[in-house]
User: Which sequence fits this backbone?
């Protein structure tokens, strides 16, 4: 027998007739897991000889060579891709199950509305019975989505329908051409006035649908909240908006439409049960990053159409305004700063083209004012300077306040010179004045808080200016914004700043400050606060139980009860609220009443002021904490004495 035949690395079998000792144990000994003792002369092992079994031994199998590093990497990547595929399928199933729930509820709601005709023979959806379309109870259909998309994107539109991805919100069949058209019109008639980010001529349903599924869904989500007779449809739109955001972040869409959608979602946030669930700050941060990556603060490309060039500039200045507002709320400087181009265009771009919107000048004004006030906490601002002496700090705050006041007046003069439409001026001028007083109060609140922390009596001039600014904010919101119907469609920061102004005044009503304000002024403040609370809980303002005005109203009511406990100002007849009616605004006056003065005498213990917070940053912290603890439960019908049922609103 050759050496090859006796090699233990091959798989040849050895029998009892072979005399050479094989490499390894025989099959029987391996099975019994005992030592295989080979009898060389007889060609068999001891165990097999004893049992009379065939002694067969097989050679060892060849070992496979070790995998290279590249092969291991490829195998790991393949396994990761397979796992991600399975997870995506699982997420898709979960999302479909959740979306199916919202679709079913919205379809049932639409069926119920179609079944209740009015006196004109039309259904609650405004349809004739003969024109009703049967609602399918099946799964969301791509046919409905394609039909709606084809309505807005006809065959001659330069869209590749083979690769066109239709927004999932259209697949349920509940957002047809009529609903989409009505919601877009509602958005630009009501919501866009509070934050004119989009161009109604450019951002038609056709244009937005061809550009961005996220922005298209966001507009439907924001506008559908006003349809209080169809709350389930709004919940469906909100679910689709959340899904579109996930897809945009996952896929890394960096377009101007994505940036605009995220800004809108941060300013018209979805209801959330706690501050942890709020995504407004995250959306704003992503929008800022996209705006920077798209270089919206640079000269627009020359080959773009004129409206799209203006759209880029408008989006940048609105992003600056929104980000600066967030920075003010957190007591830090804005992440965005002016460069040479934006500093030059700030006073030019809103009048550089006949296609400019009449609201563009207000966009530039808000961005400039918000950015200027946020620099209060910047490297060269008063809060970062090493000022020696308490008097120097107060004087610096007063100087900064004067600069803010001068800047507001500067923009008012520019608007008067530029604006040719008196209707728009009558609408926007009071709102600019309101925000001017908010920014003044923000700066003055920092000075008052500094005085309290240093155990100093608040400067009389500082306190007088702060009280005047806070009262003007409430006056403009109650007597103009509410009566004109704008409060209902305001962005969330407006509610927050008005609530901050009210909370500032409530803090002055605490017993420890009773000698600081005259009684007539305290009663007038009490009346204004109660009027604001009544306004914030009225059906003319609140859309649903998740709307922020009702949350802020409950916060103000709790704070007012706490600060005025044991005082008799609530019993004074002149302290009763006096909410004006819609469409009946009173003439706005400037300055406080002649008998409303701040007392100058420090007849109080400054120690008792500890705990009173007057800065907007601390207020945001307190109201966020309160909101997390006091948000209405989903199954609650009464919350802090206010009804929260959709039907009541």
Assistant:
């Amino acid at each position: 027998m050759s050496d090859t035949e006796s090699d233990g690395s091959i798989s040849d079998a050895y029998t009892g007739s072979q005399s050479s000792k094989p490499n390894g144990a025989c099959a029987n000994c391996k099975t019994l897991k005992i030592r295989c003792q080979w009898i060389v002369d007889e060609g068999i092992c001891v165990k097999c000889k004893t049992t009379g079994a065939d002694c067969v031994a097989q050679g060892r199998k060849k070992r496979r060579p070790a995998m290279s590093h590249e092969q291991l990497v490829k195998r790991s990547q393949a396994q990761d891709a397979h796992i991600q595929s399975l997870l995506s399928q699982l997420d898709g199933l979960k999302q479909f199950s959740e979306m199916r729930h919202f679709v079913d509820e919205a379809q049932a709601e639409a069926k119920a509305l179609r079944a209740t005709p009015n006196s004109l023979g039309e259904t609650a959806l405004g349809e004739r019975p003969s024109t009703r379309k049967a609602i399918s109870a099946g799964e969301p259909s791509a046919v409905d989505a394609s039909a709606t998309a084809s309505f807005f994107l006809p065959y001659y539109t330069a869209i590749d329908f083979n690769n066109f991805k239709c927004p999932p919100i259209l697949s349920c069949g509940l957002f047809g051409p009529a609903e989409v058209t009505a919601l877009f019109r509602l958005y630009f008639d009501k919501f866009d006035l509070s934050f004119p980010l989009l161009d109604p001529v450019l951002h038609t349903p056709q244009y937005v649908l061809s550009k961005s599924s996220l922005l298209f869904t966001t507009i439907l989500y924001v506008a559908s909240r006003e349809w209080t007779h169809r709350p389930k449809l709004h919940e469906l739109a909100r679910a689709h908006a959340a899904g579109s955001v996930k897809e945009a972040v996952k896929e890394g869409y960096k377009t101007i439409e994505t940036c605009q959608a995220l800004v809108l979602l941060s300013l018209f946030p979805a209801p959330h049960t706690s501050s942890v669930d709020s995504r407004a700050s995250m959306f704003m941060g992503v929008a800022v990053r996209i705006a920077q990556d798209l270089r919206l603060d640079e000269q627009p490309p020359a080959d773009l159409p004129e409206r799209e060039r203006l759209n880029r500039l408008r989006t940048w200045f609105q992003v600056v305004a929104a980000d600066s507002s967030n920075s003010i709320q957190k007591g830090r400087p804005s992440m965005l700063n002016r460069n040479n181009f934006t500093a030059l265009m700030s006073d030019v771009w809103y009048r550089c083209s006949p296609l400019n919107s009449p609201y563009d000048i207000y966009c530039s004004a808000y961005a400039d004012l918000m950015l200027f006030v946020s620099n209060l906490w910047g490297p060269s601002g008063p809060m970062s300077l090493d000022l020696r002496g308490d008097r120097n700090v107060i004087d610096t705050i007063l100087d900064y306040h004067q600069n803010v006041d001068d800047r507001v007046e500067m923009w008012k003069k520019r608007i008067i010179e530029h604006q040719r439409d008196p209707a728009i001026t009558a609408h926007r001028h009071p709102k600019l004045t309101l925000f001017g007083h908010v920014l003044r109060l923000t700066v003055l609140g920092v000075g008052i808080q500094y005085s309290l922390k240093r155990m100093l009596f608040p400067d009389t001039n500082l306190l007088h200016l702060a009280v005047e600014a806070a009262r003007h904010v409430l006056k403009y919101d109650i007597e103009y914004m509410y009566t004109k119907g704008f409060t209902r469609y305001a962005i969330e920061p407006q509610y927050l700043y008005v609530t901050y102004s009210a909370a500032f005044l409530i803090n002055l009503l605490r017993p420890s400050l009773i000698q600081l304000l005259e009684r007539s002024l305290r009663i007038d403040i009490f009346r204004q606060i109660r009027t604001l609370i009544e306004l914030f809980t009225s059906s003319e303002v609140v859309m649903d139980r998740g709307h922020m005005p009702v949350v802020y109203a409950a916060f103000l009511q709790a704070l007012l009860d706490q600060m005025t406990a044991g005082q008799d100002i609530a019993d004074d007849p002149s302290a009763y609220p006096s909410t004006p009616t819609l469409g009946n605004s009173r003439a706005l006056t400037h300055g406080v009443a002649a008998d409303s003065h701040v007392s100058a005498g420090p007849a109080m213990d400054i120690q008792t002021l500890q705990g009173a917070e007057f800065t907007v940053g601390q207020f945001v912290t307190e109201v966020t904490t309160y909101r997390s603890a006091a948000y209405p439960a989903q199954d609650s019908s009464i919350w802090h004495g206010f009804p929260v049922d959709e039907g009541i609103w």
DSSP finds 20 helices and four strands in the chain. The first helix runs from residue 27 to 32. Residues 438 and 497 are 7 Å apart (CA to CA).
